[in-house]
Amino acid sequence: MRYLLDTNIIAEPTKVNPNQQVLNCLNQFAEEVAISSVSWHELWFGIERLPLSRKRQYLEEYLESLLSVNLPILPYNADASRWFATERARLTQMGLAPSYPDGQIAAISKANNLILVTRNVSDYANFEGLIIENWFN
């Protein structure tokens, strides 16, 4: 594995007009990507809030297809929680309290020595030692 995909990256193919560069990168690096258990939760939470509809069914089928291709879903474990606790304390002392889910995603990326791929670079910019890529550029 080389990349941890943020929620906005793994959701991009479900858009009506998905970003072609993101799709190209997803295809190119298909064997080198994983997502976090936090993103998996965010994706399912979004679906669970939708009424029964074709859109919901399409999104459910998309997530199930990710499992069928064995997309790794990485847990928020002891190493990740320790790293995030350190970073959260450091950033909070600086008046930059991070979003808890973003911190967990960052920590999973860091604990697994992965490059975090996101459109929301600014959400992760203050985390120390985190490598970030934006496939939308």
Automatic annotation (TrEMBL):
CDD domains: PIN_VapC4-5_FitB-like. Keywords: Hydrolase, Magnesium, Metal-binding, Nuclease, Toxin-antitoxin system. One of its GO terms (molecular function) is hydrolase activity. InterPro entries: PIN-like_dom_sf, PIN_dom, Type_II_TA_system_RNase. It holds the Pfam family PIN. Transmembrane segments: none annotated. Its cofactor is Mg(2+). Residues 3-120 form the PIN domain. Belongs to the PINc/VapC protein family. This is Type II toxin-antitoxin system VapC family toxin.
